[in-house]
Amino acid sequence: xxxxxxxxxxxxxxxxxxxxxxxxxxxxxxxxxxxxxxxxxxxxxxxxxxxxxxxxxxxxxxxxxxxxxxxxxxxxxxxxxxxxxxxxxxxxxxxxxxxxxxxxxxxxxxxxxxxxxxxxxxxxxxxxx
Amino acid sequence: xxxxxxxxxxxxxxxxxxxxxxxxxxxxxxxxxxxxxxxxxxxxxxxxxxxxxxxxxxxxxxxxxxxxxxxxxxxxxxxxxxxxxxxxxxxxxxxxxxxxxxxxxxxxxxxxxxxxxxxxxxxxxxxxxxxxxxxxxxxxxxxxxxxxxxxxxxx
Lengths: 129, 155
What we know:
Chain A has 129 residues and is mainly alpha-helical. Chain A has 5 helices and no strands. Chain B is elongated and about 55 Å long. The model of chain B is unreliable at 1-5 (pLDDT under 50). The chains are: A mainly alpha (129), B mainly alpha (155).
């Protein structure tokens, strides 16, 4: 059960990373088809919800982990920031048409990338476990 | 795995972080490359093919290097390199990793030849691009199987 939850948790994370790679390409100037961007936005939503659900399930499932552990609370806070910042690029790309992504949206994207990297570091390092 | 993770020494954190980061980025970059190769193979779009090749060289290849180097690092830390008969899930990782480089190189060459021809003959669907899309799709599936093997550790 734990192994399956961990696999689904990482599968959701892979889905999230696929979207981040695609949105990074857009920020760097790649002109993707709107349908492709929509597909990756769907992957981003699936990944965001998946990492949360399976992550919380793992925290309950594994003896020695608690939902109120420091690293779990940090992960939830980072997940909320990632959720706020993650879909700005595809939405701006849809609205911008042939124009470039606004600089402010690009800045938010790089913050999003940093937050996701911190989230991964938190998962590995588990501070205050 | 979780039991091991809970008692994992701190010195394993950096290679494990790089390994997971490399694996997730590789899967993401492969998904993007395939999403670009499919329309390039269908419509013969040189613009999509050019983006796919950039994704392959600037995202897939660096992610593969990070994944593969950190895999050796973490295997060394965990002592798997000294084991004569390592468990099956390690073998799955090595197959996905080593076959991965071959598939990346072959796909890159097929895409590059198709792009050269598109420059001289204009946009038109090329069989090589379709084959590259299939190879990248295969590599994506291989890496998802490796992700399953790394997390569930069968055998």
